[in-house]
DNA sequence: TTCATTTTTTGATAAAAGTCAAAATATGGC
DNA sequence: GCCATATTTTGACTTTTATCAAAAAATGAA
């Protein structure tokens, strides 16, 4: 394994601290290397996404703007009533955003696995208290940035500017699809649709959470699965 | 009535051709004035949205890029299988985007009244055949632009660049809300939610279409309304 | 590994929403 | 304004999904 791990290789990132440094000539600790790996994964992500280069100066700006944060399983990133201050890039792990109604029933609005973004867009854009909770479903490592700092990077770094344009389009496409699924399909069709489009969710999230994401009860999902 | 009509004053726009020119000294036809009104409403829209100016040169670029199109009631703008080539600004009238499944059941993904945008984002971004129909619910006037031309304007006109950034955020906020509504509320709650957030829809769209937008049957909506 | 805790499954029943058919009402194109 | 056409309402009945309770299975922390 090289010091530079890929985004999708979760084990590579999380186990780095347990392995000896590959280069014996290095004076740097494995913790420092792990930190470098994490930022490198973000640089790779932007380069791959945009096909644009990032100068060492750009990388320094990005490194300073994105703050690394570790979340334990079930730890909250945002709780209902908080103003969501950051947009988060998931380096490894899994997050969810969900609401809880008067009866205590949860509704999962979105999941984010490694290489995806998570925020309460409503709260972060309008700087109003969130109606949602965001928490870590697994032990996770994330890179956070405030909207103001992201805006500043956008103005300075062409790759970030391009990334935001491309990402915005992708968001429009995926949300249009999700709305269509929610209003036009019954429980069984929504389940089949999720199986096809996000089989990985079934490996990473509990049936309870999947059911909530589909807008059905866990008992109903269990019965659909029996067929 | 002045030559320059407002966006929301639908009658003002549609009746222009039936009225004598206000300025008797003008050599321009009422049809030409109507055309000017339409583009001016778009310029006003961008200026209001972004609080940035548009130079006469900017206005010329925008005028050349956005093509005016009139749609009769029930006329298709996009049919399933077409590649959606344009992003549309609704000057007056009302459009909807909807799918039709194997059984002929319609599902309305979105409505657009005057001052709103309409496109099949999935098709227009990926240039793949659309899974939806877009048609005019009322006689409508729209301004169309291709994604490539919009991209070119974005690079040349700061107000357009800023508009796209702001609009993207709004889309993220509104779609997150719609997804939450769809998965976490029952039929009655979704109906109440729409009454609060889009009372104007009930004035402009049939119960059939509203029901389809809410993901319920017209009979169910009729029964909810009786309460 | 054990064991307390959480998650999933199963069964019985209730509530919500859909289906089909027909009548009442509204509408828009001439 | 008329009238064919489309839309909305109503009723009887079916299907789907939710609810509640309890058992079975899985999971994770010590």
Element layout with pairings:
The structure is a homodimer of 227-residue chains.
Chain A: H1 10-14, H2 30-50, H3 56-65, E1 67-71, E2 76-78, E3 87-92, E4 94-100, E5 106-113, E6 117-118, H4 121-126, E7 133-136, E8 140-145, H5 147-156, H6 158-184, H7 187-197, H8 199-204, H9 207-214, H10 218-226
Antiparallel strand pairs in A: 1-8, 2-7, 3-6, 3-8, 4-5, 4-7
Helix pairs in contact in A: 2-6, 3-5, 5-6, 9-10
The structure holds a DNA duplex (30 and 30 nucleotides).
Q: Can you give keywords for this protein?
A:
disordered N terminus; DNA-binding; 8 strands; 4-stranded antiparallel beta sheet; 227 residues; Jelly Rolls; homodimer; alpha+beta
Notes on the structure:
Two copies of one chain form a homodimer. Chain A is α+β, with helices and mostly antiparallel strands. Chain A has one domain: Jelly Rolls. Chain A has ten helices and eight strands. A four-stranded antiparallel β-sheet of chain A has the order 1-8-3-6. Chain A has a four-stranded antiparallel β-sheet with strand order 2-7-4-5. In chain A, strand 4 and strand 5 form a beta hairpin. In chain A, helix 2 crosses helix 6, helix 3 runs antiparallel to helix 5 and helix 5 crosses helix 6. Chain A is globular, with a radius of gyration of 19 Å. The N and C termini of chain A lie far apart (42 Å). The N terminus of chain A is likely disordered. Chains A and B meet through strand 5, helix 4, helix 6 and helix 9 of A and strand 5, helix 4, helix 6 and helix 9 of B. Chain B binds a DNA duplex (30 and 30 nucleotides) through helix 10.
């Amino acid at each position: 394994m090289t010091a530079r791990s890929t985004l999708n290789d979760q084990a590579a990132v999380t186990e780095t601290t347990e392995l000896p440094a590959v280069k014996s000539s290095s004076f740097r600790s494995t913790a420092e290397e792990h930190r470098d790996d994490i930022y490198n994964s973000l640089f790779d992500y932007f380069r791959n996404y945009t096909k644009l280069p990032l100068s060492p100066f750009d990388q320094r700006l990005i490194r300073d703007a994105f703050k690394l944060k570790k979340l334990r399983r079930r730890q909250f990133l945002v709780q209902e009533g908080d103003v969501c201050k950051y947009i988060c890039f998931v380096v490894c792990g899994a997050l969810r955003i969900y609401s809880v109604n008067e009866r205590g029933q949860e509704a999962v609005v979105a999941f984010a696995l490694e290489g995806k973004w998570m925020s309460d867009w409503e709260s972060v854009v309008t700087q109003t208290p969130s109606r949602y909770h965001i928490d870590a479903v697994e032990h996770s490592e994330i890179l956070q940035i405030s909207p103001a700092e992201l805006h500043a990077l956008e103005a300075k770094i062409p790759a970030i500017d391009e990334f935001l344009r491309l990402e915005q389009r992708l968001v429009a496409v995926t949300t249009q699809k999700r709305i269509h699924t929610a209003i036009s399909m019954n429980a069984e069709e929504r389940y089949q649709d999720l199986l096809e489009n996000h089989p990985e969710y079934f490996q990473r999230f509990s049936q309870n959470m999947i059911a909530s994401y589909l807008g059905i009860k866990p008992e109903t999902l269990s019965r659909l699965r029996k067929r």
